[in-house]
Specification:
The protein is an all-alpha fold. Helices cover about 65% and strands about 0% of the residues. The site of adenosine-5'-diphosphate has 11 residues, from helix 9.
Length: about 190
């Protein structure tokens, strides 16, 4: 695959602000990968790809989701489709056939039970890249120095609180992810 072409297209697909976020996620992913013994090349590719469809309209996401395989339920909350659709674009446009990379992209917003180390690297990098500024982010940054699992869990707790307070729907897979992390830590 041509990484420079992917980066070029990601830049074209996003506002400068979100492209800057993606650059932050790439650096944070590489750093976390090195820290936790994860393949940094896979982490970098997943990070460049993860938000490629983030600025698609709901209608465009919905239409695309009808022609490709999307994990169950994702279409009920259209924003979440940018993960599975990003993975699909990675496979079809850039020839990325590494399922570890594609899964990390697919589930980067929702998480999933039995997350791989690469899934967790991207999930946490997305939450803590230097451009992120929200209540609780420093606690997640600190957690990421000690444990990927713990950082994912804190980030999920934060997202759940945010969604509940905002009166927004919560995707059940994220609850299953949280339960799985708690069971694994006991
Ligand atoms: N687990 C979830 N269940 C339902 N909606 C979610 C979940 N996680 C995120 N969202 C929604 O999807 C939107 C995009 O999430 P995300 O891609 O993490 O945000 P960002 O654009 O800041 O990277 C959030 O603003 C939120 O409304």
């Amino acid at each position: 695959m041509e990484l420079s072409q992917l980066i070029h297209d990601v830049k074209d697909s996003l506002t400068p602000h979100r492209f800057h976020h993606v650059e932050g996620v790439v650096q944070a992913s590489i750093d976390l990968a090195k820290q936790y013994g994860v393949n940094a090349e896979q982490a970098e590719i997943a990070a460049w790809l993860h938000d490629i469809a983030r600025e698609w309209s709901w209608e465009k996401l919905r239409v695309a989701s009808q022609t490709i395989e999307v994990p169950p339920g994702f279409a009920t909350i259209p924003t979440l489709l940018h993960g599975p659709i990003g993975a699909h674009i990675g496979k079809t446009h850039y020839g990325i056939d590494d399922e570890l990379i594609l899964d990390a992209v697919r589930y980067h917003t929702t998480g999933r039970p039995d997350m791989t180390a690469l899934d967790m690297v991207l999930f946490v990098a997305d939450a803590i890249e230097p451009g992120r500024d929200y209540a609780g982010v420093d606690q997640i940054r600190q957690a990421a120095r000690r444990s990927l699992e713990w950082a994912v869990r804190l980030s999920i707790d934060n997202t759940i609180r945010f969604l509940v307070d905002a009166g927004k729907p919560l995707f059940p897979l994220t609850v299953l992810t949280r339960n799985d992390l708690i069971m694994r830590s006991e």
